[in-house]
């Protein structure tokens, strides 16, 4: 059974990103192909900002998600509209908006809601973390 994860809770205002990370690690340990993709929406897109600097005594959620993505080859999608609105832009988007910098962290990609719909249509279950 394959799952899609939809994360909407802010990495700073809720435990959604923390809980989803624990869930995905457990699921992938039990069944390595159980997660088809992770879609971050609303304030959850802030997880993909490479400029995040959490306090030294806290987990760096961005790096933790990057590690999972790299180890298990899991795509991490950020809603492009929500991300750009919050200043998380890729190199291409920074050129499009004539910005001098980009802030999208490695292993994250900007995608539209069509990608979420595709994930929903091609997996057995979608699990939302708020």
Task: Outline the structure in words.
This protein is of the alpha/beta class and 130 residues long. It is built from 5 helices and 5 strands. Strands 4-3-2-1-5 form a 5-stranded parallel beta sheet, with helices on both faces. Helix 1 runs parallel beside helix 2. The longest helix is centred in the first third of the chain and has 15 residues. The protein is globular and about 45 Å long. The protein starts with a strand and ends with a strand. The model has no long low-confidence stretch (mean pLDDT 97).
Kindly list the characteristics that best describe this protein:
130 residues; 5-stranded parallel sheet; alpha/beta
Short description:
This protein has 130 residues and is of the alpha/beta class. It is built from five helices and five strands.
